[in-house]
Amino acid sequence: MSKNDPMVLSETKLNRAKLWQIVLFTLNNSSTNIYMFAFGFVTYYSTGLVGLAALFVSQIMGYIRIFDGLIDPAIGVLIDKTDTKFGKYRPIMVLGNVITVLSFLILFNIHSLGDGMKIPIFLLSLVVHKIGYSLQATVTKAGQAALTSDPKQRPIFNIVDGWVTTLLFTGGQIVVANFLVPKYGGFTPEFFKVFIPGVMVISAILGILAVIGIAQKDNKQYFGIGEKTTKTSFKDYWEIIKGNKPLQMLTMAAAFVKFNSAMFGDQIVLMILFGIIFGNFGLSGTISLVLILPNLMFTTFAATIAQKRGLRYSYVRYLQGGVISLALLGGLLFFANPGDLSFSNPSLWTVAFVIVFACAKGFSSTPTGLALTMAADVSDYETSVSGRYVSGMLSTMFSLTDSVASSFAPMSIGWVLAAVGFAKVFPTADTPLSPQLRLAGIVLLAVLPLVGTLIALAFMKFYPLNKETMEGIQIKIAEMKQGNPSDGDAEMPQAIPNTIPAMND
């Protein structure tokens, strides 16, 4: 029987997790995602209550994400070097959540400060927030390498994460757009006094459950090849980054996909789409409710394909679907007007828009979740090549490129809106639709995401970790754990082909 035969993998002792462990650990991503959702309202808080200029805030929000990316490698090294009686990952998760809570307590009380203190404290709280957020969020990618090495189990994370994230963001948008905003008359101090504490409590509960989920796997025997893992010094990190082609290709592709996801989730973009083009911001909550089932189907189908054909295959196919649906979305928005979208009396136009919007958002955003799991594949690849376990540093390389690329989301929004006359204040639900705002909406929701998707596809053409390759990598890691003479060698795993796999493998 060939070493690369999938039957060999089924006989190999893999590190498998219980279903409840995967489900609970998935909630770590949800715990940080709810802060990402809340972070979308910082622009309205800082311009409406603090009194900062819209273009200034949009640029600062972009720069702070770049800062987030720049500190990520240091956080990755910190995770790799962490070794306590409570494990590697759990202390970082708890510390990150506590810091994030403190940052929000400061950030959303700036309006009560004197004018001379507002900008310095605003910037400081953003910096502290990104440190805490990055600490906890990095564990989501890094911890998966220890949670399970079974290629069929890893996509389960994507299914659960997709379901929870969809329910979390949909529920959040409905609560904000249909309850809190009408009740408190917009993004007022009373709105934030209710909204922000709720975010903190929900995030903390989800974080605690995630700590429980990873607890059993958070020990050295599940890190790489266990006690045989090659020690890594600081000088080794650059060689690892330089020599890991899967890392280079996937991080670049994932960065542009994250940009797309950020655009579809940005509150200003949603305001332009639903509050101005369609004339009713409450529709953003309604359509979130309507899209719950389609979003769950997109996520579940992507993970199901990944279990059968591999994560790379699923990732590429979804990007290809995104190219088509984003082009169609741009065409529909060109003809859209206030009142066209109605769920009380749906027309054929409403049905067409919902289908196209669901496909554009689903195809272009779902790969973001797949990349979380693919980061574990990249970590395993590095272990099979060098014998090193550096899941923390490798995971933060994804965060670095994600942060740099996604920083262009608020920056792009600011530039586009400034170009159409909104440099000082952002458009609101009371802003009338103009040809310039329609064009801005098309650029932000269709043109820029389409360009990002095409670039991501180009990078994925050179990403080699397909289904067969990953099976060979898990075989080699198992042999290295058992003391095979080839332990820790720097040779390419035999399962990795010498040529780049075709787009349809």
Automatic annotation (TrEMBL):
| Keyword rRNA-binding part of the UniProt annotation | no
Listed transmembrane segments: 34-57, 92-111, 156-182, 194-215, 318-336, 348-364, 404-427, 439-460
Q: Which UniProt keywords apply?
A: Membrane, Sugar transport, Transmembrane, Transmembrane helix, Transport
Task: Give the record's GO CC terms.
Answer: plasma membrane
Q: Where is this region: Disordered?
A: 484-505
Give yes or no: UniProt keyword Transmembrane helix.
yes
Instruction: Please name the GO terms of the biological process aspect recorded for this protein, alphabetically.
Output: carbohydrate transport
User: What domain of life?
Assistant: Bacteria
Q: Which InterPro entries match?
A: MFS_2, MFS_trans_sf
- An annotated Gene Ontology molecular function: symporter activity
PANTHER family (alphabetical)? MAJOR FACILITATOR SUPERFAMILY (MFS) PROFILE DOMAIN-CONTAINING PROTEIN, MAJOR FACILITATOR SUPERFAMILY DOMAIN-CONTAINING PROTEIN
Report what the protein is called: Mfs/sugar transport protein
Species of origin reads Trichococcus pasteurii
